[in-house]
């Protein structure tokens, strides 16, 4: 399938095909997005190359020549099987990703990619924060220090936990907006509830203290016992000082965005453009599609694999067979298998293995290499 990556005007009728000449048509390629978690997404927004790009790079050729399609796919499988990785670097993919910051913390460990992330210095952060569903909010695994147990929380436990989480989310974002200062309309967000309660308590305590002072003055027969506005403000300030509280005034200039964001939790969503070649992408997917990877990044990795598969189907199939759904053997494991097989009738075993592998779709070369690997003969 050929693709033409163009921007199609709204009034263009033929949105499904672009005519290259009298005999050739190609599907119009458009970015493809998949919704993730509760507020996130991953989108494939551009790519360069395909399976044939890998084949051509391996053959140091600009065309497919006289090779058959079957041999092209076989070459890709050979490259993957023997870890000849450079040809896979000839294909690039670019993604637009929206995910919680704690997911990006893991994501950015893959340092072979180009990244441009949403900047909390230039723009205000949104109030979108990740809230896990009940089936993904689990206790700590007792045997795995970085994983979750299989058991899920009871309904009342989940409700109690999420109430605490949502409270922190609301308070942190309210604090963020509050310390940013006046908005473009001149208004300023209220202080977080907990801070406002302390402010209100100090004011009420100061007023109560002033009332007590007035009663004592009246009882003592003093004239003009009512405190002045200035003296009441001074009393409030005293209570503020004693309790570590202060109230922002209307002339507060606000805190810079780059420092105001320190109050936001790592559940806050961010966005990035993420670009890299297929070889490095396969390395990322081998780690993040693994069942042991954290769920919140694994779902993104699974979606990315699905997004690229239509453009490099042979490479993805080889990656699944030899990496993602395959396994390598250590020297000790290989020797144990060879020792176990040593007492068998090699001829019968060889023929049985050949039949089984052929039925599963292995090529003659793959079968021969496997038999050599486990020392059964060929």
What keyword list fits this structure?
single chain; 378 residues; 5-stranded antiparallel sheet; 3-stranded mixed sheet; alpha+beta; elongated; Gyrase A, domain 2
Q: What is the name of the CATH class of the domain at 31-125 and 267-324? A: Alpha Beta
Structural class: alpha+beta
Strand content: 5-15%
Q: What is the CA-atom radius of gyration, in angstroms?
A: 32 Å
Strand order in the sheet with the most strands:
4-5-6-8-7
Q: Helix and strand string, N-terminal first?
A: EEEEEHHEHEHHHHEHHHHHH
Biggest sheet character? 5 strands, antiparallel
Average predicted local confidence, pLDDT: 86
First-last Cα distance: 39 Å
CATH topology group of the domain at 31-125 and 267-324: Gyrase A, domain 2
Poorly predicted parts: 7-15
Care to describe what's here?
α1 crosses α2 and α5 (193-219) crosses α6. The chain has 378 residues and is of the alpha+beta class. It has helices at 51-59, 69-81, 101-107, 155-179, 193-219, 229-243, 257-260, 278-288, 295-308, 313-324, 331-341, 346-359, 364-373, and strands at residues 3-5, 17-19, 25-29, 32-36, 40-48, 92-100, 114-117, 269-277. The protein is built from 13 helices and 8 strands. Among the domains are: 31-125 and 267-324, Gyrase A, domain 2; 331-373, no CATH class.
């Amino acid at each position: 399938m050929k693709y033409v990556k163009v921007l199609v005007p709204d009034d263009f009728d033929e949105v499904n095909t672009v005519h290259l000449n009298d005999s050739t048509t190609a599907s119009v390629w458009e970015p493809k997005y998949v919704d993730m978690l509760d507020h996130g997404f991953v989108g494939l927004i551009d790519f360069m190359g395909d399976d044939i790009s890998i084949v051509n790079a391996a053959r140091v050729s600009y065309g497919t020549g006289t090779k058959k399609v079957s041999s092209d796919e076989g070459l890709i499988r050979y490259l993957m099987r023997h870890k000849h990785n450079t040809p896979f670097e000839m294909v690039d993919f670019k993604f637009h990703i929206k995910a919680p910051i704690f997911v990006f913390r893991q994501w950015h460990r893959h340092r072979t990619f180009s990244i441009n992330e949403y900047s909390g210095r230039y723009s205000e952060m949104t109030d979108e924060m990740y809230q896990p569903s009940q089936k993904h909010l689990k206790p700590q695994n007792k045997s795995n220090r970085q994983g979750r147990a299989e058991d899920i929380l009871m309904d009342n436990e989940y409700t109690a936990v999420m109430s605490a989480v949502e409270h922190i989310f609301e308070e942190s974002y309210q604090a963020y907006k509050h310390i940013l200062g006046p908005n473009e309309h001149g208004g300023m967000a209220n202080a977080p509830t907990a801070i406002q309660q302390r402010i209100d308590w100090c004011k009420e305590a100061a007023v109560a203290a002033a009332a007590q002072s007035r009663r004592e003055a009246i009882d003592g027969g003093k004239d003009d016992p009512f405190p002045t506005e200035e003296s009441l403000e001074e009393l409030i300030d005293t209570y503020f000082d004693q309790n570590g509280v202060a109230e922002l005034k209307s002339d507060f200039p606000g805190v810079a965005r780059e420092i105001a964001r320190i109050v936001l939790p790592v559940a806050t969503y961010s966005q990035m453009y993420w670009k890299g070649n297929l070889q490095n992408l396969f390395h990322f997917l081998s780690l993040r599609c693994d069942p042991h990877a954290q769920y919140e990044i694994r779902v993104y990795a699974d979606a990315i694999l699905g997004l690229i598969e239509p453009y490099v189907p042979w490479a993805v199939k080889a990656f699944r067979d030899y990496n993602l759904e395959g396994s390598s053997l250590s020297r000790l494991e290989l020797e144990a298998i060879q020792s176990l097989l040593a007492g068998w009738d090699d001829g019968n075993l060889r023929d049985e293995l050949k039949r089984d592998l052929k039925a599963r779709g292995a090529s003659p070369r793959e079968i021969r290499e496997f038999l050599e690997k486990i020392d059964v003969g060929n």
